[in-house]
């Protein structure tokens, strides 16, 4: 493989990985405009984000077996076509219920791109290069939460919220053409791979009963669900409560993303001196303290715009350290069925995240209280799950450096 081809494939796989994050972040600044157009509230519009999270969670479990049974490209192309159709539907949505349903379908489509891109890294590149490839993919993916909301804010202000979905549909069409023309079918379909519920459920069961998996996967998923509460609640808090416009909100979202992405890179430096088992409890306790202060401050009216930004920056910085370590420790016991463990862990993270997102949306109040309460609650449950579950682990399996790099991605 030539160097030019090598980096082109990384760029294409990275673009596939960003389709989901762009679909989440880019339309956030348009929440007030969508609410006005559909004659509803910003909190109701947030339910379209919750339905997207539910779709991504379900897709994690759906596409893994399909990619092994039918090869990589066929399920990927079907997912992209579904994404394009759903995006066009979002443009013409006339009710909030229609938008919520279409966002669910859009998520199912985008999930094909995310799952296939990870699987194809294993197919297309030597194993010794996987950590390097995932690190390069992280540069592409990491840009999306900083670029997407800012672009979305300017597009919404200049042309209207529908243009966000037009742009997303055009991006998906370009990706579809690139996949058809330039992406090799890197995995031969396996007709012996069973899609029956019995064998699939048996694989999941073998993963769930492992104490190290359920301890770190549950604790990490609870901490991670606070991110979804933030993403769902931030449009209301910043644009409805603090009255910033869509453009400013995009810049705030980008700034806060620096905390999450930056701390995940700081974690790489910490791992040179400490292992994940030592880093994780400290990061969890720090997140719980920050979340408790944020909840108390939101209840008592301590924080204005800048105070809220600072508290969310600290919360996301803690999460940037928790997530890769909890994920790496979760899949460390598995070698043959690491894919099953990874998809189950992703489904848990996104499923609990969808519940947290819906919880914020159900409180139709113009304050940061619902977001702060759910962030504090999930942080507390995460700490309890970690310290209680660790008592059942008899022998810790250590993640290797390549697995940790993958989990950072």
From TrEMBL:
Protein's membrane topology: Multi-pass membrane protein
One Gene Ontology cellular component: plasma membrane
SUPFAM superfamilies, sorted: MFS general substrate transporter
Cross-referenced CDD domains: MFS_MdfA_MDR_like (cd17320)
Domain of life: Bacteria
Cell location: Cell membrane
Transmembrane segments: 45-64, 76-94, 100-121, 133-155, 161-183, 213-231, 251-270, 282-303, 309-332, 344-363, 369-388
Pfam families, per database record: MFS_1
One GO term (biological process): xenobiotic detoxification by transmembrane export across the plasma membrane
Keyword terms of this UniProt record: Cell membrane, Membrane, Transmembrane, Transmembrane helix, Transport
InterPro entries: Efflux_drug-R_Bcr/CmlA, MFS, MFS_dom, MFS_trans_sf
Matching Gene3D superfamilies: Multidrug resistance protein D
Major facilitator superfamily (MFS) profile domain: residues covered: 9-394
MF terms (GO), sorted A to Z: xenobiotic transmembrane transporter activity
Protein family membership: Belongs to the major facilitator superfamily. Bcr/CmlA family.
Protein name according to UniProt: Multidrug effflux MFS transporter
High-level lineage: Bacteria, Pseudomonadati, Bacteroidota, Sphingobacteriia, Sphingobacteriales
């Amino acid at each position: 493989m030539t160097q030019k081809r090598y980096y082109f494939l990384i760029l294409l796989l990275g673009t596939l990985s960003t389709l989901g994050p762009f679909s989440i972040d880019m339309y956030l600044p348009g929440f007030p405009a969508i609410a006005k157009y559909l004659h509803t509230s910003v909190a109701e519009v947030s339910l379209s984000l919750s339905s997207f999270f539910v779709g991504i969670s379900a897709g994690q479990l759906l596409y893994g077996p399909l990619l092994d049974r039918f090869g990589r490209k066929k399920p990927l192309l079907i997912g992209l076509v579904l994404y394009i159709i759903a995006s066009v539907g979002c443009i013409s949505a006339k009710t909030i219920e229609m938008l919520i349903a279409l966002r669910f379908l859009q998520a199912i489509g985008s999930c094909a791109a995310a799952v296939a891109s990870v699987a194809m890294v294993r197919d297309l590149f030597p194993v010794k290069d996987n950590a390097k490839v995932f690190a390069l993919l992280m540069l592409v993916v990491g840009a999306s939460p900083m670029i997407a909301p800012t672009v979305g804010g300017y597009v919404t202000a200049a042309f209207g919220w529908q243009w966000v979905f037009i742009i997303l549909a055009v991006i998906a069409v370009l990706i579809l053409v690139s996949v058809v023309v330039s992406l090799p079918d890197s995995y031969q379909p396996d007709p012996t791979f069973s899609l029956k519920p019995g064998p699939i459920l048996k694989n999941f069961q073998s993963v769930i009963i492992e104490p190290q998996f359920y301890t770190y996967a549950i604790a990490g998923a609870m901490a991670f669900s606070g991110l979804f509460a933030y993403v769902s609640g931030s449009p209301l808090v910043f644009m409805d409560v603090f009255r910033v416009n869509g453009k400013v909100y995009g810049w705030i979202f980008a700034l806060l993303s620096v905390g999450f992405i930056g701390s995940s890179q700081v974690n790489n430096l910490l791992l040179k001196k400490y292992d994940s088992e030592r880093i994780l409890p400290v990061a969890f306790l720090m997140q719980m303290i920050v979340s408790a202060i944020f909840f108390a401050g939101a209840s008592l009216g301590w924080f204005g715009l800048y105070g809220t930004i600072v508290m969310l920056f600290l919360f996301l910085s803690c999460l940037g350290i928790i997530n890769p370590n909890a994920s790496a420790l979760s899949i460390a016991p598995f070698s043959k069925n690491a894919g099953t463990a990874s998809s189950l862990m992703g489904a848990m993270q996104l499923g609990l995240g969808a519940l947290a997102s819906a919880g914020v949306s159900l409180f139709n109040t113009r304050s940061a209280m619902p977001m702060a309460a759910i962030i504090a609650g999930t942080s507390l449950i995460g700490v309890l799950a970690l310290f209680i579950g660790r008592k059942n682990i008899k022998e810790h399996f250590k993640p290797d450096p390549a697995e940790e790099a993958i989990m950072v991605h």
